[in-house]
Amino acid sequence: MNVKPVMFGTLAYTLITFPLAVVWHVLMFEEKYKSFGYFQGEPSFLLGFATILIQGAFLSFLYPFVKFSAKGPVRGFTYSLFMGIFFWTSHVLAFVAKHSIHNPVSFVLMESFYLFLQFGIYGVLIGLIYQKWSNQNA
Q1: What does the DSSP assignment read for 42-67?
Q2: Which residues cross the membrane (predicted)?
Q3: How crowded is residue 40: how many other Cβ atoms within 10 Å of its Cβ?
């Protein structure tokens, strides 16, 4: 296995997810997320960054092992849609199940849109990254 697409995929995921998470959860909608009980004290940016790095490495490593009929960005988007649904259930639905939230529908809608952005952009990029490496090795 070529490690370069995994590294570039990890970098892409990290460069998309970390800034998007900070802007979305801390800058744009901080008060809304506090009202959901999403934050207990100050968020740990270092732990969040490490988590995102691990997720990106795992998702980028796994990509070539999951087969879809499409190619390039469409394949990447399909892959990230499936992986995003898994993350959605463990992130959004689990949060709602474990916490008493004043407005759970609002939380689910906001987090669903956020995850769609995150995984949609990553999916297109991971598809392009692996397409480039498969073209170079063909």
Answers
A1: S--HHHHHHHHHHHHHHHHHHGGGS-
A2: 6-24, 45-65, 77-96, 108-130
A3: 7
